[in-house]
Amino acid sequence: METVTGFIAEDQAQGLFRVARTAFTEESVFRAEYESVFEKCWLYVGHESEVRKNGDFVRRTIAGRNLVFNRDTSGKLNVFFNVCPHRGAEVCREKHGNAKHFQCFYHGWIFGSDGSLKSQPGKERYIADFGAQGRGNLVTVPRFANYRGFCFINFDPTACSIEEYLGNAREYLDLVADQSEAGMVVVSGMQEYSIRANWKLLVENSNDGYHAATTHATYLDYVAKTHVMGNDVALRGIGRELGNGHAVVEYTAPWGRPIANWIPIWGEEGKREMERIHAGLVARHGKDKADRIAFKNRNILIFPNLVVNDIMSLTVRTFYPLKPDLMHVTGWALAPENESEWAREYRLNNFLEFLGPGGFATPDDVEALESCQGGYRNAKEVGVGWNDISKGMGLDPQYDDEVQMRSFWKEWNRRVSAVCK
Amino acid sequence: MTTRSEVEDLLYLEADLLDAWKLKDWLELYTDDAEYEVPSADLPGDADPAKSLFYIADNRFRLQERVVRLNKKTMWSEYPRSKTRHLVTNVRLLGAENGELRVRAAFAVYRTKWGNTDIYVGSYEYVLRETDAGLKIRKKRAILELDSLRPQGRVSILL
């Protein structure tokens, strides 16, 4: 029997799982998402390698908040609200850099990299214990956690620990973090772009194994044509719910992976390099885990909006809605800190072939998402109000089914429908 | 000795071919070892694509494949085609050596599709080569003077 709960209609016997298209269009939903998702969940703020040296900082916009993520002069990682305690100007006005102090240019207050007030012009005109009261210090976000280099914040002081929140998804972030004994680093160059579509469309798209054959026909033509390039390996694998809305698809694919899946076009030098990296993985993790890291692709979703795609290259991506039909996306390339110049070059080359605003695939994803948003203009009409997310129901999950999307939607619906009907 | 007028003729021809979507003819303007690059907006203009993440860093082979892709109806983001207009100005010859000429110009590219008009603005850095078949483009780097690709969202056209 079909039951409707919030924005989801479900009937296991009929293999039916539908999501109301108003979830993508309504202002009330957009507001409810901030209240029940972005202000309650752990959100990715950056990778520790982005602030590697003491004093390094980057500015970040997370869930609309204006933040500074830094490593202070004692080596501690912090995330501050980028706002002067005095009258509210931004204390950090550069996108990134290294600083022992932040100065508010409006009235000249100066803060240490740990956020403490260091200097206040006209101090004698304030009460004597102004500094001691802490009223003049920068304020950190309520919660911060570093899980193996992936740094998260939470605006809810009562939230559970990051370990508990990530739960079964930790195994998959570990498969990324374990790719190098020297640690992983974010490569310079951010891909910041927007999509004129609802943010949840990118959640679905980022771990959708079903759309490649048509949406990415031209990319697959290109792979096939350069097929000296590819391995004769089929797209094959599974999708998995990880709990708390997290999900993953894990699969083999014909493309090369700079973490040790060689393809002929990389030549003999590449082969030696891949064998060297693979041998290192085997030595550290044993053959089974090494093969899994090297030869399997993983599209990981950490609820609500962190995507780690460990595919022909390794990308970290997060995104926020500005309106129901507009999102801002930020993407990075992640790489082993100690990989060779050769491997880094091929990694980035692989990245650009598929991923990002100029790749042979991502612009067509953007088009597809915007096209869905266009279709949702009919969301309130009879008979066209629902998305069908039922692929693979009642069957053993495959990488190109939709179990991972149902995982997201169930958690999203649990949270959002509690505050919005 | 190549003059600025000759360089401008080449750049304006290139802009016209792109706006007319005559991409195979456009590719003929490039040498067999050509490179075409668009660094990410937060990188310095002289960044190295082997070390930093770009939007586009094509060698001749991938550039050719980019054109193949752009000419397909399954290239969804540019089919139906967007309307574009490439404006090229402030052309300067920066120097010449070994038969190659360094040129800088300013650009504004307008792309219109589905009711949105997005503007890409920045500078072109060219390396041009004198060949028996005339002046050809050995390298083009389009450096965006933008904070990000918001709202443009993509670089699916050729800049």
Task: Give the CA-CA distance, first to last residue of chain B.
Answer: 28 Å
Which sheet architecture does the biggest sheet of chain A show? 8 strands, antiparallel
**What would you call the quaternary organization?**
heterodimer
**What do the pLDDT scores of chain B average to?**
97
Total DSSP helices of chain A = 11
- Derived from helix and strand composition plus strand pairing, the structural class of chain A reads alpha+beta
Q: What is the 3D shape of chain B? A: globular
The CATH topology of chain B is given as: Nuclear Transport Factor 2, Chain: A
Uncertain residue ranges of chain B = none
Query: In what order do the strands lie side by side in the largest sheet of chain B?
Result: 2-1-6-5-4-3
Number of E strands of chain A? 22
Gyration radius of chain B (Cα, Å) is 15 Å
What is the helix fraction of residues of chain B, given as a range?
10-25%
Straight-line distance between termini of chain A: 21 Å
Radius of gyration of chain A: 23 Å
Count of helix runs of chain B? 3
Largest interchain contact: A-B, 43 and 39 residues
CATH architecture identity of chain B: Roll
Strand content bin of chain A: 25-35%
- Roughly what percent helix of chain A? 25-40%
Family (chain B): Belongs to the bacterial ring-hydroxylating dioxygenase beta subunit family.
InterPro entries (chain B): NTF2-like_dom_sf, Rng_hydr_dOase-bsu
Protein name (chain B): p-cumate dioxygenase small subunit (CmtAc)
GO molecular function (chain B): dioxygenase activity
